[in-house]
């Protein structure tokens, strides 16, 4: 177990958390109109000040790697890199889509054959999504989907699928199938990062701070699938 600073700014709003030995000791979010650049800086300063005041030595910074908005990811990743350089810390990129799955998995019950489909809103009927089983094993890689009635049919015909995230609401009427289920009010939050971050740190699965770049929505259509953390 370690002390990890968690930063999430991939979509609207931003959030910051600090976990110590797998327990949250700081957790704040901001959805005001002042923008991630200002709000995130304030939250990060508060988080680091609290950790320092308690004598907690940070071991790593976990940051949401997208897909997400260009501005939000750029601000979050730049801040994470600055902290890692300044304090000689490891950086842990966390897939935003995989992060979305943590809250439902920890707070709800699913059948053994359930599939989870987190969705990030893009434009019109386009979303960025992936499919995972209950162990967070990737069943289908991240794609930019134009959602139509048959977009996920090959999975819905075989297994129940739960859709959630800010892209799911606009798809509810389009995806009409008995195996399609929708969960409301699931957003990427820093407080849910720690299980994924601890797992990655234990595996020494961190990134090169100098060369890391997040997944921006505008680039994702052409992006090749890669391993999710």
Q: Topology, pairings included?
A:
Blueprint: E1 3-8, E2 14-20, E3 23-30, H1 36-53, E4 60-64, H2 70-87, E5 90-94, H3 96-107, E6 115-121, E7 126-132, E8 138-146, H4 153-156, E9 161-164, E10 180-182, H5 194-202
Parallel strand pairs: 1-4, 4-5, 6-9, 9-10
Antiparallel strand pairs: 1-2, 2-3, 6-7, 7-8
How would you characterize this protein structure?
The protein is α/β, with parallel strands linked by helices and 229 residues long. 27% of the residues lie in helices and 27% in strands. The protein has 5 helices and 10 strands, in the order E-E-E-H-E-H-E-H-E-E-E-H-E-E-H. It has helices at residues 36-53, 70-87, 96-107, 153-156, 194-202; strands spanning 3-8, 14-20, 23-30, 60-64, 90-94, 115-121, 126-132, 138-146, 161-164, 180-182. The strands form 2 sheets. A 5-stranded mixed β-sheet has the order 3-2-1-4-5, sandwiched between helices. A 5-stranded mixed β-sheet has the order 8-7-6-9-10, covered by helices on one side. Strand 6 and strand 7 (126-132) form a beta hairpin. The radius of gyration is 17 Å and the shape is globular. The two termini are 18 Å apart. 41% of the residues are buried. Residues 221-229 have low confidence and may be disordered.
The biggest sheet, with number of strands, parallel, antiparallel or mixed sense and barrel status, is:
5 strands, mixed
Q: Mean pLDDT across all residues, rounded?
A: 91
Q: Can you tell me the overall shape?
A: globular
Low-confidence stretches: 221-229
Content-based structural category: alpha/beta
Helix content: 25-40%
Strands, total number: 10
Q: What portion of the residues fall into strands of 2 or more residues?
A: 25-35%
Strand order of the largest sheet: 3-2-1-4-5
Tally of DSSP helical segments: 5
**Helix and strand succession?**
EEEHEHEHEEEHEEH
Radius of gyration, taken over Cα atoms and rounded to an integer in Å: 17 Å
Distance between the termini: 18 Å
